[in-house]
From TrEMBL:
Lineage: Eukaryota, Viridiplantae, Streptophyta, Embryophyta, Tracheophyta
Source organism, top-level taxon: Eukaryota
Entry-linked Gene3D superfamilies: Metal-dependent hydrolases (3.20.20.140)
Listed name of the protein: Amidohydrolase-related domain-containing protein
Biological source species: Rubroshorea leprosula
């Protein structure tokens, strides 16, 4: 089975980054090595020995034409300046639109407006966890809100079944896992998730290279997963191409109501003004993030606010 057309289509697709965070200035105290891992303290010293670090460092070095070492890459960044590497990374990533969650507070981070100089479209999305923490801070959950702090599997299953408006993005795991880990994870997503509810995100944060790596590896991973789906008989090549269009941009455009009159294929060259997604048309949908996979591949749950959602159903 030939997949040349599918590969070419994916390589030419503009990417709508459905979830990312702010870039920081050159004066930040954020260590560059933290862009490769979320480890902290003594654990950070083991980061260079991970498969993802070795691969990601090599790919950044190839982009910059520098030696494949952390010191060489950092020296290139220092000499080139933030604006130059910003343009290089975003151009190589093929990102045409980005939705920024500015609820993750970083030292010396740039505001949304700064990011709009890099892409045709930059919008803002609300970090609901942080807002909920601010609202609930200081409150006695059980007495004031009458919320049962105990949760059972049966209750969780009931809630998940009702959330038909839940969508999925798979940022951070791509590119922070090994190649096999990334492919396996995305395959698991597509085993149960409707294709039109799956969205790509880089989950880029702090430094431009996280955006680049997230986009680059997403292309390779999605291509591999869709090829296997065709070989297994789940999809025809034409269906795989349509699936890729949805995952890389169309699903996010439709979900966030990004300029409803704008065609996906026109995004890269568009000069349409940016707007905050918080001002988009209210369709009654709620983006609830209740489970995710962290950098080491551990499943994480945020149950604390789940009962707030139950009470609203």
């Amino acid at each position: 089975m030939e997949f040349g057309e599918l590969r070419e289509a994916i390589e030419k697709m503009e990417l709508v980054d459905g979830h990312a965070h702010n870039i920081v200035s050159v004066d930040t105290t954020f260590p560059f090595i933290n862009s490769f891992s979320e480890a902290t303290g003594d654990a950070l010293s083991f980061t260079p020995h991970s498969l993802s670090f070795k691969r990601n460092l090599r790919e950044i070095s190839e982009l910059y034409g520098s030696e494949s070492s952390l010191d060489a890459v950092e020296e290139y960044r220092r000499l080139s300046g933030l604006q130059a590497i910003s343009l290089k990374c975003f151009k190589a990533a093929g990102i045409s639109a980005v939705l920024i969650d500015d609820g993750l507070k970083l030292d010396e981070m740039h505001d949304i407006e700064w990011h709009r100089s890099l892409v045709p479209f930059a919008g803002r999305i609300l970090r609901i966890e942080r807002l909920a923490e601010q609202i609930l801070d200081g409150l006695h959950i059980k007495v004031v809100l009458d919320i049962n702090p105990n949760v059972t599997t049966k209750m969780l299953k009931k809630v998940f079944l009702k959330f038909y408006v839940v969508y999925l993005d798979f940022g951070l795991a791509v590119p922070k896992l090994s190649v096999h880990g990334m492919i396996s994870l995305v395959k698991e997503f597509l085993e149960v998730a409707p294709i039109n509810k799956v969205m790509i995100s880089t989950d880029g944060y702090a430094v431009l290279e996280t955006y680049y790596l997230g986009a680059k590896k997403a292309c390779g991973v999605i291509f591999s997963v869709l090829c296997d789906a065709c070989i297994d008989g789940d999809l025809h090549v034409a269906e795989a191409t349509e699936a890729a269009k949805g995952i890389f941009g169309r699903n996010a455009i439709e979900f966030y109501k990004i300029n409803a009159g704008l065609k996906f294929s026109d995004l890269k060259a568009s000069s349409t003004p940016c707007f905050d997604v918080e001002n988009a048309v209210d369709t009654g949908a709620s983006f609830v993030r209740s489970i995710w996979v962290d950098a080491p591949g551990q499943y994480r749950y945020r149950v604390r606010f789940l009962f707030l959602s139950i009470n609203k159903l």
